[in-house]
Amino acid sequence: MSNNINANNLNTDSSSSPVNVPKMDALIIPVTMEVPCDSRGQRMWWAFLASSMVTFFGGLFIILLWRTLKYLWTVCCHCGVKNKEAQKINGGGDTQADGACKPTDEKEENVAAEVGWMTSVKDWAGVMISAQTLTGRVLVVLVFALSIGALVIYFIDSSNPIESCQNFYKDFTLQIDMAFNVFFLLYFGLRFIAANDKLWFWLEVNSVVDFFTVPPVFVSVYLNRSWLGLRFLRALRLIQFSEILQFLNILKTSNSIKLVNLCSIFISTWLTAAGFIHLVENSGDPWENFQNNQQLTYWECVYLLMVTMSTVGYGDVYAKTTLGRLFMVFFILGGLAMFARYVPEIAALILNRKKYGGTFNSTRGRKHIVVCGHITLESVSNFLKDFLHKDRDDVNVEIVFLHNISPNLELEALFKRHFTQVEFYQGSVLNPHDLARVKIESADACLILANKYCADPDAEDASNIMRVISIKNYHPKIRIITQMLQYHNKAHLLNIPSWNWKEGDDAICLAELKLGFIAQSCLAPGLSTMLANLFSMRSFIKIEEDTWQKYYLEGVANEMYTEYLSSAFVGLSFPAVCELVFAKLKLLMIAIEYKSEKRESRSRKRILINPGNHVKIQEGTLGFFIASDAKEVKRAFFYCKACHDDITDPKRIKKCGCKRLEDEQPSTLSPKKKQRNGGMRNSPNSSPKLMRHDPLLIPGNEQIDNMDANVKKYDSTGMFHWCPAKDIEKVILTRSEAAMTVLSGHVVVCIFGDVKSALIGLRNLVMPLRASNFHYHELKHIVFVGSLEYLRREWETLHNFPKVSILPGTPLSRADLRAVNINLCDMCVILSANQNNIDDASLQDKECILASLNIKSMQFDDSIGVLQANSQGFTPPGMDRSSPDNSPVHGLLRQPSITTGANIPIITELVNDSNVQFLDQDDDDDPDTELYLTQPFACGTAFAVSVLDSLMSATYFNDNILTLIRTLVTGGATPELEALIAEENALRGGYSTPQTLANRDRCRVAQLALYDGPFADLGDGGCYGDLFCKALKTYNMLCFGIYRLRDAHLSTPSQCTKRYVITNPPYEFELVPTDLIFCLMQFDHNAGQSRASLSHSSHSSYSSSKKSSSVHSIPSTANRPNRTKTRDSREKQNATRMNRMGQEKKWFTDEPDNAYPRNIQIKPMSTHMANQINQYKSTSSLIPPIREVEDEC
């Protein structure tokens, strides 16, 4: 105390008398700018350092001593316990021994009580410093904040000398620093109490920081002297910065946590090292009596450390002291490694974070969708090309792509070209934080793209299903449209509770639609191309030359749209409206959304495809149109009979005054919904589905009682033909058996696959060919040619379909192809299950291309065809020879024989679009030509799964489009059927009830020939519009396209039999006799009934000579008499009931045993007409020209 008093007095004297200053300078050690606080000029840095060292080593010694004593005590007590247990086991021990043990027991109880008290205190301390509680989080954040405050005070004091005299009561910064350190001391005590291992706690970084920063503050108060010392160690607290931000829920992503960790470690190490250099360089070496010091500011030391770490070393600032240079030697090793590792990683994280991080900011009044899944240059470009097509109305929708991999340069350039409507964010839909970043809760929909070319389709579907689960879990109400590769995986979506197809959720199964398109091409060649072009957005390409491309491209420009019908059409029948719209508005309407007038189904809206005259247009009816752009379709909404009846130019049909008056009146109709909602989502209970065009009345109870309950011919929904499960061995044909079986008019499916190949899902190919709107005798026999091992794996889903055979072999074997009479088939389908197992894209289709070229190069003898032609006359394609002459539908025999494989109708599936150039050797398609512009695609002989990409955007803008396409393509698959297949993975047979039989009464796509029949007069130079109106009025058939010979426009005859598709020709389009017309044909009840009556009289002759694809299994006649008697009695009973019920209450089946007679008068065929048919040569499977029905009783 006396020294301090003397020092104070000395300072006071020196400050008051300037004469004494030189005397004081003589007492101060040279080259130091510090003012000593005593007359001897001694430095007191050792006192500050000693306080820290004594605290550290003293505490360490106490901890080690305590552990040693505790260990010895434990060993001694352990021996005593063992002796006591031994005495208890031996049963010995006298009274003195018992008395001696009592004090020991009491001591143990006291120790236990003491341990319990100490444990409670320890738990309390742990809770106080734990970040799991609010108090702990506040305390941790407060300690960190005060540590940063103490570091700031160090930065301020670093401008002062290393050791200086400061009065605690007058120095404000010293008082604040003292308060901070008192708090640190209390927090240190809590940490010490809560620590399980006191030794490791004593050696922690934070503890060492406290040892060398807290005690010197108390020493400075005692000595009235300040030493800058090791206070720079507070910078090490910055390492905990990321933990603090995590406690506050500021950091949530791994990248942000990693970035903050790297930055905090780098900065804390940098500042701490700079503080040490500042200390030793400003103090000097102790063994040099502090004479070699240099004056450096703290920030100059920070600069020195940075240039040292970066290995630049300008030399303007360097260490002069030995301690400083020794430190720099070791720091260069660690600092250089840290700099080289941390700085590039920090830069990469910052750059990536700025580029594809952040949060999507939605624009007010503008919707946005989220697209995720398989994001590549090909998938994104195909999606954007269709989604942002100019033919759509103004697409006021922002597209947000979310993917966990940053885009490459090409994809990034694509995003930049569409930067006004497209944004990309890096993340995963499986992460809720990323879903929040893209505002999934406010998105209009979420679209999930699939990798169509993956090697494992089931794994890809599983990934997309997990994405659906994650998105639905985050926001159950979001509308999701996802692509699926395999049909059987759609069932897993039904397990998601919030998945609801009624609210707009849709799964676009690529295998289902791809094989469905191919199946429809077996029934109507070229249909796959027409439908693919209808739901794809194509720009109009005008060609002046009179070539087949000119007419094809005019049809390609048509797409499918929806629009609400004007009130001027209310009360008119569908055929009348359809004719008026086509003739006057130049639009083609193929279906409507209809609200039933029945009380039990008023809330259910149904899609009716080409319904009959009984359907009247209601107010607010939504129509499905084929047109070139959305603006043309608005004519149907603006049409007014009073204002537009006399207008001949459809472009002048615009909104009139009458329409404005209607709009001013309150109405629930909103034309703005026509593109996006498509009318289906107006009601949450709406369920679009196909409805039959002419509802049959339900028979009475007596009819139901007499129904043959022991026969199941259809599945439980009545949508498909069904038979009991057959063993695969019963349908296998050997090559010799197939050769002896005269197959014709059948479908040959050439398939490549093996045991390891992924399943294609052949059920989706067979189901449309077994739709119940075909009569049984109209079903084409299906013959699979391929690996038996692969077909065994597919057979479980095929064993319930009739008329299916298997020829084990390979499609590359000409012997196998000749055995199945490929030259007499109606269609040859070439598929491969090995396409996605090849890395080289150009080789993915090698098997299909080789098989196609192999078939086209085959040559055939025409003796079989001539023999059949002479014995049979003509046969309706796809029908048995027993088809009656008085059927309302007749067909033409295909070319009696095909002598070259180039004339065999083939459709080949391709994976790589560019490989289409190898299918036709006689075309001039450029390899860079888009698929839809190539000749094989235009002719319907090639199909690629890439054309289905357009369905994603088409479904988003109008969810009814997918229902319509699926109904036309799959033969009638419904959500109810999908739920049934999800339960049993197979079709279930059902009894024929009026409800299920009514499901047969639905439209199907067919082809109509113009060479003969009621339309022959229009086939030679007639107008397509006249044909359209006549077919619609007379036969309720809706025409929508032409399948024309490629060289029909040439004036010279051509031997080419290739045809191409013309979609929705204009009214004045000129027809040629060889044209085939695509039409929506109504279900024909008469075909099955007439076949029944004919089978009684000519069954024996028919069985021996029929040109049928099903002659492999000739029906047995052993029990025919009993069946005939039963049938006769049943027919008599039902005839009586039907006379009583009246003409309208009729229901029919296609089997002869269950058919009811109908009196139909058909105009007979003339001899001239029969000769003309036999002379005509055609290579396509046709739907026969229609004969008019003069009278129907």
TrEMBL record:
It is a multi-pass membrane protein. Residues 1091-1116 have a biased composition (Low complexity). GO terms for molecular function: metal ion binding; potassium channel activity. One of its GO terms (cellular component) is monoatomic ion channel complex. Residues 664-692, 1091-1158 are annotated as: Disordered. The chain crosses the membrane at residues 44-66, 138-156, 176-194, 259-280, 296-314, 326-344. This is Calcium-activated potassium channel subunit alpha-1.
